[in-house]
Amino acid sequence: xxxxxxxxxxxxxxxxxxxxxxxxxxxxxxxxxxxxxxxxxxxxxxxxxxxxxxxxxxxxxxxxxxxxxxxxxxxxxxxxxxxxxxxxxxxxxxxxxxxxxxxxxxxxxxxxxxxxxxxxxxxxxxxxxxxxxxxxxxxxxxxxx
Length: 145
Known about the structure:
Layout: H1 14-27, H2 34-37, E1 38-44, H3 55-68, E2 69-82, E3 85-96, E4 109-121, E5 124-132, H4 134-141
């Protein structure tokens, strides 16, 4: 995925900011950008049990994602903005080479879809809701038949 334009993230539209976040943080694992791109008051409305719903929870989830899946690639299928809201439909692809939420590494290639809705405040991600194809992912890792 390539960055849509050469503008600094604070000068981009919310959809451009979201694409930049996906490319840099979700795909490349640039956790150092989270403080710049995610609002200090960030809230994730769809956390799993035991996960934090704040910016540090996002940092931990992104770190775990990159520890669990090597060669991670994220393809944005759709990215649509409406004011301060941005919706994305993405496909994550990689190899399951580390534990993911208690599921030990299988070595299997995986592909799973995620739909996110995020709200931007002051140019930063401030709220997040998601629907992920967890059942498909668990089947691919061997955790489910």
